[in-house]
Amino acid sequence: MKKNIKLYTIVLLVLFSSLFGQEIFALDGYVNEKVDVTFYFNSPVPVAAQIQFESNVSLSKNTDIVGDPVNEVYKNEFSSTTSFTPTTPGNYTVTAKVKASDEAGNPVIIPSKTITVTVGNRPAPEKPIDKPVERPADKRSSNNFLNSLSVSPGGINFNKNTGSYQVIVDNSVSSLSISGSAEDSKASVSGTGSKNLSVYDNKFTVTVNAENGAAKYYTITVIRRDSDGNTAPLSTNNNLSSLTVSGCDLGFSADKLAYECEVDNLIDSVDVVATQDDSKATVQVIKPDSLVVGPNEIKVIVTSESDATKEYVINVTRSSDAPTVEMADLADALKKLTSDEISVVADASGVISKDIISQIKESKIILNVIKKNEAGDIVYQWKFDGSKIVDTFDIKLNLKFNENIDKFDKLSNYAKGMVLTFDENKELPKNTQVGIFVGEEFSKDALLNLYYYDSEADSLTLQQKDISIVDGFVWINLEHTSQYFLTPVTVVGIKSSISAFDDLWVVSTAALTTITMIALLVIISDKRKIKKMQDRISLSRPALSEQDSTQELVFKD
After folding, report:
1. I need a labelling partner for 263 at 20 to 30 A (CA). Which of 21, 117, 347, 442 fits?
2. Contact at 8 Å (CB) between 35 and 117?
3. Strand ranges (DSSP E) for 11-153?
4. Which range is least confidently modeled, 153-162, 253-262, 440-449?
5. Cβ pair 418, 401 in contact under 8 A
6. Three-class SS state of 14
7. Strand order in the sheet with 282-286
């Protein structure tokens, strides 16, 4: 009886083996080129299989075990590939043998398959024609879509082609349930069920595996609010990413909270641009409408989403020093000026207009007009005191050096000096000064004399003497302009307006001293007479009573 059962089993296994689909594929090859051989079979029932390649040539007889023998995962399809590289032309055979068993552990007989590969020399320049490997179509379903997906509490607008969803629930919701079903009954769904929720983000994935193993993923993000109703932690970032103040180089750093900068006296306002590092933060700039001379505090307050504040402080100092501007900007600068002095660089016209002089007079400030050479060095400068100006008119500024020097050599008996030729101004405002750079022309300790050239008399007149050189400049006082001669020498035998004045001053001083002495002698003499008279009266009269002591004494001449 046992023999009959065994015989029937063998017969059934032989008959069952005829149901297997088996193919072995290889392309004819060429010498010294790799040839791939692939064996493929499918089974009507899941089996565990081991495939072994044998050949009449030397090849890698690797054994490919399909599936996981440890977990005994059984499959319906198996394939394996081996390769060899022939070195000579000829016919090569490759045989694939399969050792298989079903889930009950019974052996399953799968016939071996043999293929003959013809190898030749590759003809040049022809290329081999690759034959596509034809494999049986996979008839298993690839449908991995969900038919439905829902959460409770909460809700989503499900669409099988949409893979991501978001649900927001209150802080009181500590868990929810995810439900879902596959569109294809042969597919499997995982990732559903009850889920615990932490505050803020919770991500859950529902996976659908089709019959053929292809997977699709649906992601649900559940946001649980915190006790304050926020859907995410509030940002504490209260940093600035940038901070600029017009006219200042701050050297900004997010961690640096205090800054110092100085602006010109003419700057009466600054622009402040502050950018927060976090878009959820807010920025408030507190600054004066206009800058006062001296320190001005500007505050930039950054408030984070969580209400944490940070304060940046910029101390902007508006200078009280005299600013220097270009001639074209002078009129506007005078309107903003808070200093009592301003400097301007002379332009090509070489003229200060009547309008500018009027503004200087009205504001009573000091105007310095600077003339520079091509190298940018100051060669001379004018100084006008607005508080001394009476009449207003255009003033010519140009000055040339050492014109007609030969003429002045003769007039000064060849004294060392500089000829100053001004554009003619018949009148200048009172207290006008001109600073002239003499450089190394004279010794720095030298005292210079200024002579006016009278063109009608062709003579020099001393105007100012003992002028010191300070930082390479000499300053001279002018009431009008024409030609002058500057020299450390006292020129002998010429007219001097200063010497006559000096003589008058000596005579006047002597006369004043004499008059003062006479007046003092008279006063002393009168005091002595009065004293003697008082002494005589006191000796000739009796003492006054207490009530009479308040009576006034009257003297007659």
Report:
1. 347
2. yes
3. 21-26, 29-30, 35-55, 63-66, 75-84, 90-102, 107-120, 146-152
4. 440-449
5. yes
6. helix
7. 258-263, 309-318, 294-303, 282-286
